[in-house]
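To close the chapter, one final illustration. This time we ask the reader to focus less on the individual chains and more on the assembly as a whole: which components sit near each other, and how the overall shape emerges from the parts.
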Amino acid sequence: MPPADSSPEAPDDPCALPPAFARWFAQRGWILRPHQAEMLAQAAARRSTLLIAPTGAGKTLAGFLPALVELAARPPRAAPRGVHSLYISPLKALAVDIARNLEAPIAEMGLDIRVEARTGDTPAARRQRQLRQPPDILLTTPEQIALLLSHGEARRFFSELRLIIVDELHALAPGKRGDLLALGLARLAVLAPAAIRFGLSATVAEPDALRRWLVPQEPPGAMADLVTVPRELAAAPDLRILETAARLPWSGHSARHAMGEVYEAIGRHRLSLIFVNTRMQAELVFRMLWDINEAGLRIALHHGSLDVAQRRKVEAAMAAGGLDAVVCTSTLDLGIDWGDVDLVVHIGAPKGASRLLQRIGRANHRLDTPSRALLVPSNRFEMLECRAAIEAAAAGEQDARTARTGALDVLAQHVTGMACAEPFAPDALFREVTAAAPYCGLPRADFDRILAFATDGGYALRVYERFAKLKRDAGGRYRIANPRLAQGYRMNVGTIVEETMLKVHLGAGRGGALRPGRLLGEIEEYFAEGLSPGDTFVFAGEVLKFEGLVEDRVIASRAAGRDPMIPSYAGGKFPLSTHLAARVRALIADPAHWRCLPAQVADWLRLQQARSGLPGRDDLLIESFPRAGRHFLVLYPFEGRLAHQTLGMLLTRRLERAGLKPLGFVANDYALATWMLGDPQRCVAREPGFLGALLDPDMLGDDLEAWLAESALMKRSFRHCAIVSGLIERRFPGMEKKARALTLSTDLIHDVLRRHEPDHILLAAARADAASGLMDLRRLSDFLMRIRGRIAHHPLARISPLAVPVMLEIGREPVYGEAGDAAIAEEAERLMQEAADEPGPADGGAEA
Amino acid sequence: MPAITAVVPVSSSLAGAVPVRLGGLDLILHPEGAALVPAEETLIVADLHLEKAASFAARGRLLPPHDSVATLGALSALAGALAPRRIVLLGDSFHSRLHTFGAASPGPALIAGLAARAELVWIAGNHDPVPPLPLPGRALPELRIGDVVLRHLPCRDGRPEIVGHLHPAARLRTRAGALRRRCFLLSPARLVLPAFGALTGALDADDPAIADWFPDRAGHAFLLGRAGLSRVPLAAVMG
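The assembled structure is written out below.
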């Protein structure tokens, strides 16, 4: 637990703490901070409360203190009691860590309080015992809450619940895990109406959305109280952009040019965290640093697909002061203080102001000293983005999130879980789930369709009534049809559907027999599928040679060479946030502002201004130019990669209709380039409104529908929904479904359903997910509305300076699934050509 | 030897199809996943797995109950376009002996419609050693056309064969990444048909369960695609 404060001043309000606590605080020289006292008062007044505080403010203690104080004052009782306080964290490790950290104060104050964690890793025997003898404070995750609530014992287990603490609420609420937890809290409100909720959150743009999330929406719009730590208390972060002597690349994400300077910065600090945006980038940066590690600095690697044991080792080494730097992904965004971090390096652009603040908060976990962070843009646009992010951070601005509508696949999972716990009446359950903020606008008709889906698949032909998973009793109440189905539900609870991962083992083949050896971690299936025996790749910080697949395991050996075949890197995982994009546009549009940029970047923009024009703050710049026998149209929307990709797909359809024969497009976070055989300049000359018509918002009508019918994006979304909703089970009793067969089977289900039952609720759920996620439709739609009548077209004779970065990405970006048939035909032709060039095996009966 | 130019533009219904030979028999591979014997006016499809969704539903996985209609609809359309005299169903036509068409299912009518167009020959499969319901046409363990045997399971008896059962798919590395498609597999010894059923999964051709049937990798895979079949050497998909 972080210390409350180390200043020797006297407590502000000693009455707020019982004597045992006050003594314990005094022994440590701590004082009760105002927000911690406020949370005690809120608990005493039985008020649900959102606490917003920066990292290092003693937020977690502020949440727990009221629970400890109340439990300490509780009269002893012989009979086992229900859980008193529930702490829910998005991270298993955080729950376990805090459970451990609570032991000390409880022991030192001599309190009779039992604290236990419950996660997926908790042994079954202990979980059973926890059900019989609940601890006073239970620390757990959203998935475990769903599991507990699906048990018949839930009613008794939670009957004495007084306080629910949701940690890192800002990270949890905006996703499907937040939906699942919101539904769980709605059930807890029924089982334990007396319990109040505390939400703990980092600074957010719109606290009211979280205040609503935290409490039952009865009446709609109800909000938890708000306690904040004044911003002035926290020292402003010391943020800098790396001033590189090297030439800043036009494109790419490796930041190779800056590695020497990053290495020097690491050498000057005690412990550095080096954040990158993707796992591949982490591997790459780790490798580059070791290649120049002449001083023998202790640099480690930490990302989500490394083996858990290996990650734990790195964390322990950090805590013990045994490391100088750790290269990491978002796995270290949240949570635990592993060590005395005094520098955060961010490689690549942060993509959002809030993410940047969260990450730099990892350095110097103390309020009174500033966090120190170094931003390392890997190309010129990222330089602009980093600048914008620093200005946003200085202004204390956060990315706004639009309010979320609860996902229907999560609701389907919850409905099944509730039927496992005890019989429910649909009217009562509908009232219950609509008290959860994400579902407060849920139409009854959608609820009924989800109930029908959970019951017998919800198909128009009710042919599966005999196989129904939920049975209706005479009173109209639903319960699970048999215990095996309940077991299946419990094995599949949760909303995190990961890429199918394959385990990577060290091992070598002898005489063609590959034997798996030591486990290194996991990699994405699609990546493994792209490897051929002999290919080298970087994993777990080593260059490995791919030997082959044995069942579902990747066997690799240590490679002798130092130059791995590094997979193409498809940009950051997160698209540029709307807020940051607006700042980047404003920065570019204002030459007076360029003083803050390195000379080479300012020169680049000046050249752009002279040769073409600058993208306006609210206008859309479009350039057209011929190059290598083709005509290019480059747009600069700055709306993020996802929205640009969607726009690219739709624009291609329209260019096709306009007879311009489009050949392809490429998108990054800032721009979109398409190329074609026809000449768009001629179209514009003939018809001045041509580009306006091309980008009319009506493209989100029929063109979008036609594209969606075939889109690989929709199939991916559908697969996710099919798993979360329980149509497809990841695991079922007695059998592990062979993971590698999964992708295909959900695609087939999607195709059959789409053709024969286009109105099915699961297709609607997949569609909603794709619209808000992979397609970023709302953003695209806002953009198209914003630029109506504000298009600035610059017909050019040649490529413009600003177009260079996106043009360099042509050929590096992955091609879309829709183009797959053409790609297969191409590859087939190449292979047959190759086969014809050399005397190969006899032609197997094909006599063309 | 260019790959795609092997396409014969006989008629629009054969667009993208590829002529091949096996054991002296002229065949046409159709991009929908069926084989044709022109001399016999015979259409061959394998592994329909009708009522697969229903048999899954009985075990608690409520897959959409439209797979039989989708499969039989596709077969009817193909039969309508190609007008064969005979249709050979190469085994595993039904997924389970226990789950046949429900009372309201249009399945029997679709099969009757097929039977009205062509003679139906139901080859026995491991899922349906005997037909689970009375069916129009003949039920046989195997069928011979010239020197070629048509049967469900592949066999090493030295006779050229056309078989199903294996549900082959091929994975190819392309500029669009690794892509996977159902495929035909053809060697001098045998032609393996892809599964025709709408909800049938597929197995990669490099899996020993399939690759062991092509020990010397002599021959080709024909990948199904919307625009036609793509031919690649077996070695390219089996390693």
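The CA atoms of residues 72 and 110 of chain B lie 6 Å apart. Chain B has five helices and 16 strands. With these observations in hand, you are ready for the problems at the end of the chapter.
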